[in-house]
Amino acid sequence: MKHLLKAKVNEVHEFEFEQGQIQNLDIQKTSSGAHHLLVNDKSVTSELVASDFLNRTYTVKINSNLYQVQISNKLDVLIKDMGLSLSANQVINEIKAPMPGMILDVSVEAGQEVKEGDSLLVLEAMKMENTIMAPRDAVIKSITVEKGKTVSKNEVLIEME
Fold it and tell me: For the purposes of burial, counting CB atoms within 10 Å of the CB of 153, is it exposed (0-12), middle (13-18) or buried (19 or more)?
């Protein structure tokens, strides 16, 4: 099975290649992050200047020119085509009820600073207590529920800044 990759350079040029093509490159590491390679019988020097492995974006210096490169594999393309995202850059500003239930406890108040993983409230659903935690460091903007209130699925419970 072929492992197809796509590269987008400077948000303009797009290339497709297989993993085997990368492995067959005539490339030699010269120093930390720098490489020498032969492309079409021409000598090329490259250096990895910056990388964001999670988002698969890289800044590469080739013969004194900087290029922004975004790599995507077959799964990345499929996820994008389906309108889904695995991006870590997504900021959650609302806490919604993951299921219908009753609020047993609210542990925060408006204006309070919370850290990722702090308990915000307890939701009872199907005779089970579910602790809803902060997905990121934030300040509580508003709380739209109170202890004893019944909530429906996807109802906004807390807004954060």
Answer: exposed
**DSSP state, 99?**
S
DSSP 3-state of 157: strand
Nearest to 13 by CA among 69, 80, 78: 69
Residue 70 token pair: 């975004």
H or E stretch including 14? strand 13-18
Residue-wise pLDDT tens digits, 18-67:
877 877 788 888 876 688 888 788 888 888 888 777 778 888 888 888 99
- Residue recorded with tokens 């460091």: 137
| CA–CA dist 40, 30 (Å, integer) | 20
Nearest in space to 16 (alpha carbons), one of 29, 5, 8: 5
Handedness of CA 23, 25, 28, 33 (dihedral sign): negative
Please report which residue ranges of the chain form alpha helices under DSSP H.
19-23, 74-81
- Alpha carbon distance 41, 50 (integer Å): 27
For the full predicted model, state whether its pTM sits above 0.85: no
Residue recorded with tokens 């080739």: 62
Q: What is the 3-state secondary structure (H, E, C) of 45-91?
A: EEEEEEEECCCCEEEEEECCEEEEEEEEEHHHHHHHHCCCCCCCCCC
